[in-house]
Specification:
heterodimer; A: Glutaredoxin; 5 helices; elongated; B: 162 residues; mainly alpha; 0% strand; globular
Amino acid sequence: MSPIPALLVLAALVVIAAVAGVVWRARDGRRRRGSDVVDLTDLGVTPGRVTLVQFGTETCARCPQVRRMLQGIASALPTVDHVDVDLTHRADLARAHRVLGTPTTFLIGSDAVLVARFNGVPRRADVEAALSELPLLQEAS
Amino acid sequence: MTETAPATPRGIDPRAPRFAAWITSVLLLVATFLGLIGIGGSRFDPAFVLTVVIALLFLWSVLSPTTSPWSVLFRRVVRPRLAPPTDLEDPRPPRFAQGVGLFVVGGGLLLHVLGVPLALPIATAMAFVAAFLNAAFGFCLGCELYLLLQRAGVLGRGPRAA
């Protein structure tokens, strides 16, 4: 290939990568609503408690920042727990909860119903908004 | 399941892997360019040589992340000019991603030597996209592959003996 078409291919490559990055950033951490009952086996969730379950692995670069944020939210609310589930050696849990990437965060209500699911890094305001919809917390406040 | 994270290795400045990813992106882009203009030419052309160098740099980062050239360059030259990091990051994810980079580029080199046309520019282009996403957006594609590889049964199979 001569240099000019090769440079055009490179330019296309940079554009594709940049568009992929912008699309990914826009979709990342967006809240998805749920209504399924979550199987709490092996998640470390105390039944009857509102819990933020965060799935991570040893190779998850963005999990520590999410852990700090969720711990901050949970520690300020006495009725909310934060649980960290390491999937590094638990392919079974990743499959059971359909976790395809990390971090993934579940907000599980006291009735074990999945209230919200965040794939990627959730925004703090979105997590707090999802929590505020829970009846238990409205009574407490 | 564990409520707290297992003992993690000493943290690294999160800007170090991003800095290295910029350099890697540029090298991979140059390698892709050389690979494209060298199509049909000699098998051991400049693109091949540069890709071997890139593969060796990936290997170095996997074996000894703290002594790899870009990591040393960051610590000696770049970091003293920046504000101290606000928090430190786990060094394992970027190291795993370097391994994924080595696998992709190494595979490209192998297929190229075996005579598969376009293997080299395609491999370096794929690695470029991953490195660029990491550098520009902080998105570690290699790190994200872990769960998919696990699902495919390549890594971390079965529950760890409790």
